[in-house]
Amino acid sequence: MSLIRTGLQRLATVFSGSNGGILSRFLTNVVPAQQQSINTQKEVIETCNRMIAQKPSRNFAIIHLLGKQWRVSDGDLLVVEGYWPPNIGDQIKLEKVLLAATKDFSLIGRPLVQPDLVTVTATVISKGLSHTRVHFKKKRRKQFMRINFQRAQQTMLRINSVEIADKINARPKNEQ
């Protein structure tokens, strides 16, 4: 027991000796963690801004539309069920963007990405009704049968573009 105690005392003197010890010398040579994280954040933002400027890969986004989440990219077709007011040929901007990404990086919103950072535009191609769904009910030995037919309204959208703004973390143009 005394050997363990003396060993621990020796370690304590090495790490916090009168001349500073190993631990204090190590800590003085290390850059503070907060300063490192700020530098890392700036480097990541600069790298993403360079990649956006080069536009090397296809962008995609996850949007929230009529209670559902959709992964969209340029040229995709969406079939949205339920009543939706836009008419055929209308150009619309989908503003509830949850995530935007390329092959190299992702911008994740909490819960949404900044409003002018990502622009997703779409065109309404057609409106109509879905295929006929049959609801058949029957109770055995009771001579009870019902057949109901249901067709839901559908809107078809073509995604024109998914564009990420030129600069991440840049001030909006109306603020100086």
From TrEMBL:
Superkingdom of the organism of origin: Eukaryota
InterPro entries to which the protein is assigned, alphabetical: bL21-like, bL21-like_sf
GO CC annotations, alphabetized: mitochondrial large ribosomal subunit
Secretion signal, residue range per the UniProt entry: none
Keywords: Ribonucleoprotein, Ribosomal protein
Pfam families in the cross-refs: Ribosomal_L21p (PF00829)
Family membership: Belongs to the bacterial ribosomal protein bL21 family.
PANTHER family for this protein: 50S RIBOSOMAL PROTEIN L21 (PTHR21349), LARGE RIBOSOMAL SUBUNIT PROTEIN BL21M (PTHR21349:SF0)
UniProt name for this protein: Large ribosomal subunit protein bL21m
Organism, scientific name: Papilio xuthus (Asian swallowtail butterfly)
